[in-house]
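example protein:
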Amino acid sequence: MPDTPTPADLQKNVEHKTAAQPGATATAATTPKPSPERGRTVLAVGVVEKIAGMAAREISGIHALGSGLTRTFGAMRDRVPGSKSSIGRGIKAEVGEKQTAIDIALVVEYGVVIPKLAAAVRENIIAAVERMTGLEVVEVNIAVNDVHLPDEPDVEEEEEETTGPGQRRRLQ
């Protein structure tokens, strides 16, 4: 059975070949190269949801993100002093180490060609998330939950109409 080389024997061969090259030194072969990755980066689900939300809002023809119930709760949450509006409302993401999948619920404006809008939203979300996070977007599922008609008031507008100016809405 032939002798199997040991790691030390392999290292000597590398040093010998490197030293044989003009201008090369033996220390160049023994110096470890720095690793391109010296740690781990973990992205929260909310980060991907916010990026996807901003990317979706860049496409014209979208009236709102989320289902009717989500928008209603979001409008109430936005009225609480000190709260921030949720950019990721209506978006759910699953985030792994290298990949992500995104689900988005939309309300579109009346007259928009929905398949073209969905394709544009999908492309914009994929481009933004992959560029900003480095994650591979494996899928973007789009659910169109409603069509906003021109004469139809928003959820926020309905709440403002039920309370007069300077009046607070009575909670039950």
Summary: The helical segments are 7-20, 26-30, 45-57, 68-78, 114-133, 155-162. Residues 156-163, 168-172 have pLDDT under 50 and may be disordered.
